[in-house]
Design brief:
Elements lengths: L1 H21 L16 E2 L21 E2 L14 E6 L9 E3 L2 E8 L4 E8 L5 E6 L20 E2 L3 E5 L5 E5 L4 E5 L15 E3 L2 E6 L7 E6 L5 E6 L10 E5 L2 E8 L2 E5 L6 E6 L10 E3 L2 E5 L6 E4 L5 E2 L1 H4 E5 L10 E3 L2 E6 L4 E6 L5 E6 L13 E3 L2 E5 L4 E6 L6 E6 L9 E3 L2 E5 L3 E5 L2
Parallel strand pairs: 2-29, 19-23
Antiparallel strand pairs: 1-16, 3-35, 4-5, 5-6, 6-7, 8-9, 9-10, 10-11, 12-13, 13-14, 14-15, 16-17, 17-18, 18-19, 20-21, 21-22, 22-24, 25-26, 26-27, 27-28, 29-30, 30-31, 31-32, 33-34, 34-35
Length: about 425
């Protein structure tokens, strides 16, 4: 099975290379000195010590440090375990001795932000969002899927049609920006991005104006708002520094688009994504990596340029096998992802797009993975919806070390700080450490 997947991927890759060459796109472009200047804008200062946003301080699930355990069970290496009221898939966010996450009760009629003490898991407070519009959601998405962000002063939470909000560390609502009714047929899920003094959020939707907008972090005042030509999406924007300028990049419907963080003007776009896009962009080796759709394409893009740069900035493309929900992760020379339609993990050579290996993780399930993978201490961790975490040795060959299980449904991605894992399941929050 693995050999047939690898052979098929190589054949398809050669076909794509020839097709791209015929329209003037090089599948393996010449590297330029500018490539080395491209990087994700990571959390800095005190924020770099914690897990202040979706996918951590790196913005892409990369964890520094070597003192994190790689084995656990419902009892082994569990430092504490506490119940979490309501339902939600948002990931834990950590700052100091606080853990923040959102939850939903009464079928989405009550939405709230929860704060826990990191040392022992004790719940400190619960802050409710103002009452408002009730969205229609997919069962797997729910009403509390967006992960909050924090700068150590305020906690920024997106509650969809209830608005974008900021709370202080005591749970007081500081400001609220009404975004209007959000009409996205599976509900909302994209997390807010903190960039310098502003909060950036994008929301694609049906029968209403899709947009990307920036808000002043201190007051909530709207700084700019740009209309988007898309009808559906659940992703999170990223901030990258590329070739001497900062760019806000959105992995969206039918296209990857970069915007100016100062005024929201569109800088460039690369076409080729599918209709439904969730995974967050990751960065490495001078490239942006976009995964999209139900086993759709993966695009490797050189950022920069102006306007439609599909023909000039697409470095390589893998036509099928991308995840629908989980984001990819880069480590070393490899790009890793898991196709949640088939439970098949893939490692690409990040620079060239060559498939290094493919293998199934556990039992094949349609939409069987939701959490995004993380890399720590030379290992890649993939967690499926059943709470099984597959621990792989990072590298050009498939090397499954072992499988951990918590025995609880797990859709949220983990947070890792100071040698501890913080994992949210359907009903609990776990702290896992040596």
């Amino acid at each position: 099975m693995v050999g047939s997947y690898r052979s098929a991927a190589i054949i398809v890759g050669l076909m794509v290379s020839l097709a791209l060459a015929s329209v003037g796109i090089s599948a393996l472009p010449a590297r330029t000195p500018q490539d080395t200047t491209i990087s994700m804008i990571a959390s800095s200062g005190e924020g770099a010590r914690y897990w202040p946003r979706w996918r951590g301080p790196s913005g892409q699930g990369q964890v520094s440090g070597t003192d994190y355990p790689d084995t656990w069970s419902p009892t082994k290496n569990v430092l504490w375990k506490v119940s979490v009221a309501g339902e939600g898939n948002s990931s834990p966010v950590v700052w100091g001795d606080r853990i923040f996450l959102t939850t939903s009760r009464d079928g989405g009629r009550r939405l709230s932000l929860l704060a826990f003490r990191r040392s022992d898991g004790n719940q400190l407070w619960e802050a409710f969002a103002p009452e408002g519009r009730l969205e229609s959601v997919h069962d797997k998405n729910g009403h509390a899927s967006a992960t909050v962000s924090t700068d150590g002063k305020l906690i920024y939470a997106s509650f969809g049609s209830r608005g974008l909000m900021a709370f202080d560390f005591n749970g007081n609502l500081v400001w609220r920006q009404d975004l209007g009714a959000i009409n996205n047929y599976w509900g909302t899920a994209g997390s807010p991005l903190l960039y310098k003094d502003r909060v950036i959020l994008y929301q694609d939707q049906q029968r209403a104006e899709s947009f990307i907008a920036a808000f002043d972090a201190a007051s909530g005042r709207q700084l700019w708002r740009t209309v988007r030509d898309a009808s559906v999406g659940w992703g999170t924007p990223v901030a990258v520094h590329a070739n001497g300028r900062d760019e806000i990049v959105v992995n969206g419907q039918y296209a990857v688009i970069a915007y100016s963080p100062e005024n929201g003007h569109e800088l460039w776009r690369v076409n080729g994504t599918t209709m439904e896009v969730v995974p967050t962009i990751v960065v490495g080796h001078g490239l942006l990596f976009s995964s999209s759709g139900r086993a759709g394409p993966t695009l490797a893009i050189r950022p920069g340029g102006q306007g439609d740069v599909t023909r000039t900035h697409l470095a390589w493309s893998s036509p099928r096998g991308s995840p629908f929900i989980p984001s990819p992760v880069v480590h070393g020379d490899q790009l890793y992802m898991v196709n949640d339609m088939t439970s098949i993990a893939t490692a690409f050579d990040a620079k060239t797009g060559r498939t290094l290996w493919q293998n199934r993780l556990g039992t094949a399930q349609r939409e069987g993975f939701s959490a995004s993978p993380v890399v720590v201490d030379g290992k890649v961790f993939f967690t499926n919806d059943e709470g099984e975490t597959f621990v792989l040795r990072s590298g050009a060959e498939f090397n499954l070390l072992h499988v951990n299980t918590l025995g609880e449904r797990t859709l949220a991605s983990p947070a890792l700080v100071d040698g501890r894992w913080y994992i949210r399941t359907a009903r609990h929050l776990f702290a896992i450490g040596s």
